[in-house]
Design a protein that fits this description.
4 copies of one chain form a homotetramer. Chain A is mainly α and about 230 residues long. Chain A is built from 10 helices and no strands. In chain A, helix 1 packs across helix 4, helix 5 crosses helix 9 and helix 8 packs antiparallel against helix 9. The structure holds a DNA duplex (21 and 21 nucleotides).
Chain lengths: ~230, ~230, ~230, ~230
DNA sequence: TATGAATGAGTCTTCATTCAT
DNA sequence: CATGAATGAAGACTCATTCAT
């Protein structure tokens, strides 16, 4: 994530005259961090619509002017925040892949590791992520990024699954698709609705992992005839 | 869905003092329908925030005044729209339970039926549902209703699972929790992001059902050792 | 009157979260003045209801946004305007008391001074005051302030009346009550309905003072038999 | 007060095409009464601005359409209501004059009678009268009527005062002006601000009468030198 | 005549964004 | 670069009034 955020808006009117070429540093970097941190807090406590740029600037201890010095629009802040989330998720995945390849865990442990990693990402500021992901209107570019990240995760997962002999699923790519999206969706939902939980965190992980493991182990269609 | 919409807002001021007693009919009924239809379209194409009451009214071919004659607030429109969705989902569940109990399908067929039912619900206007469910700020009452519906679905599913000998899971309630939320989340995501799909609808259903079936059949922890 | 206007509304929603700490200056001070002046003019010429915030802002030569930067609501403007009036009236009373105690005038001169002071207050923008006082819906706090000011005026007047040997009234507090309210009401009415006057200003003052003096001097019930 | 109320508005747009010539009767009379009664209640409990025509109609048990059948505008209702008040006050004055002339009371008793009469008028629905008189924007015609009524009251009072030998005031007309307006203002204020009262009703009347009596008895300017 | 659904101009208020200092 | 006062388009909502039935 660069310090200077490019405007992703469809340029409704006059804006950005000339993009800053020299990367901003020093004092500026600190401001950018402060603004992003403040934005995260403000969005979390006020929601997207009520998270006004003035409030964010105030919380960050800078003026609105300064905020707009670094972020050409409110949307740009959301984008920056989301990119952080994206990077973290991606990093988590790569990290996990690295571990898995070197550790040579069994499938169950591998899945547990993965689910726990994603859980960690979603459990930090669940409301914020929900706001960024669902409430805020995302520019197409970000939407594409999100999709690309998912696709890449599916590919990566697919490749990894091939390494496990326990996986009996005929089409690892499709299986990976289901695994990735199941983990993302369920984990997100679990984090976002704490009051709806029937299981606590560890139990939830166990069940989710069991489901994935059973799915990957038992070839589709074989289940019903096995009993 | 009744013609007269009750105000679910926490009544910031006095607002509509006494709800109209006589059920509105004829022309008015048509207005209400038109407004809801228009709202659905406008929300779908503009998003929640940009779906202004004036735009909705215009699209509905009525004046804002008329809109406010039937819906005390923008929120009330969202609520009306969501209640439709809620009722449909609930009805689908009950319908399904009825079928299952009488038909005495195997587990796989039962799950397939259920998943297909939920898919149908989510495939009608997926973006609208996403907006209503995630983007719009829901009044506490609706939020509670949604949660209650989920809880009831979990209980119902739990009860039903006990009827199937194929289910090897020790705790049907927990399993039901995972099943319900997995289906809801994945199905919602699948419907909401058509461009991200790797599988087509039928394949998706098959995979999802396989996962659920495998999960329910194989007791947790046993899976990895069964192959 | 401070530059920063405190919100006296019962905060229908969150509104201005934390009042600006640093006193606004320079250009802003000018805006506040302009807004108040404009509000006075607009209310005076259009009445309270038709004195819209947009009209006020326009008249003040600022945007509505600026208006709301300094006054959280239309009501706050009324409050600010009324507080000026209140302060002036109170100051006039204290000033008068000071004079009276030091000058040791006779009762008639004392009353004349007082009546003239109040007249001056009411003769500046009588229609405005009438609108603020009677037409605009006042927040409870202001209403209480107004009442408290009246009560204090009565007490002060009561104390002062005891100093005059000419006062034959048995109960100076009650007498003070009548004096204060008579002066306020009559003076207000005289100022507010210029076209209804039968007497000119000076004559009015003389008559009013005569009435008060006669009342205070002649013990109730004794008057009719004294002639 | 006629059943058919003429529109006193300055006809901002198209309105009243042809004034109804034949006086409405029967069912209509009842509706008119109901509307006026309802309007009085609604204004009293909601204030002028929140006293909507729909609310009035509802309270009256008729439709808005019917309301507009008899009153061309909201203002017309206010006018009708105020005319009632005006008539009552005028009648009270005439009645009083009649009594005074025939009874040949002393001045004090005469004044007491008068004050009590006005008190009665103001004590019925004090808030309503305040709303009608001060809060509602009155059409010029009504304003003139009000002024004319005051002027007539002053003349009448002036004529009557000449009949009382106790009256030592040189200029009965001026004295009458003060008397009329003092009674109106004070009485109105007393009725409108029940929470500000220091005296109860009877005491208030006694004091007010004393003041008037003393004023009328003691020639102006004589007081201060009398002690 | 009565009805009441429909109208839409007009209100208050918010907030992303700009720009003079 | 930083500041923060100023901007003004836009939104939710109200209510006096009309008119087809």
């Amino acid at each position: 994530m660069s310090t200077r955020i490019t405007d992703t808006t469809q340029a409704k009117s006059k804006k950005r005259l000339e993009p800053r070429k020299t990367p901003v540093q020093g004092r500026s970097r600190a401001s950018v961090e402060a603004i992003l941190t403040a934005a995260a807090q403000v969005f979390e406590s006020h929601g997207y619509a009520a998270g006004t740029t003035n409030r964010i600037a105030e919380r960050a201890g800078v003026s609105v002017g300064t905020l707009y010095q670094y972020f050409p629009s409110k949307e740009a802040i959301v984008v920056a925040l989301l990119e952080e989330h994206l990077h973290e998720t991606t990093r988590k995945l790569h990290e996990w892949v690295g571990h898995m390849v070197s550790l040579r865990h069994g499938l169950r442990d591998a899945l547990t590791d993965y689910v726990q990693g994603i859980m960690e990402v979603h459990q930090t500021r669940p409301r914020l992520q929900h706001i960024l992901l669902e409430e805020a209107p995302l520019p197409p570019r970000l939407h594409d990024l999100l999709m690309a990240a998912d696709a890449e995760a599916v590919r990566t997962m697919g490749g990894l699954l091939r390494l496990y002999p326990e996986v009996g699923h005929a089409d690892p790519e499709s299986a990976a698709y289901l695994v990735i999206h199941t983990v993302e969706s369920l984990t997100h939902r679990f984090a976002a609705h704490p009051d709806e939980r029937l299981l606590d965190g560890p139990r939830f992980v166990v069940e989710l992992v069991s489901m994935l493991e059973a799915y990957l182990s038992c070839p589709p269609g074989s289940g019903a005839t096995r009993g």
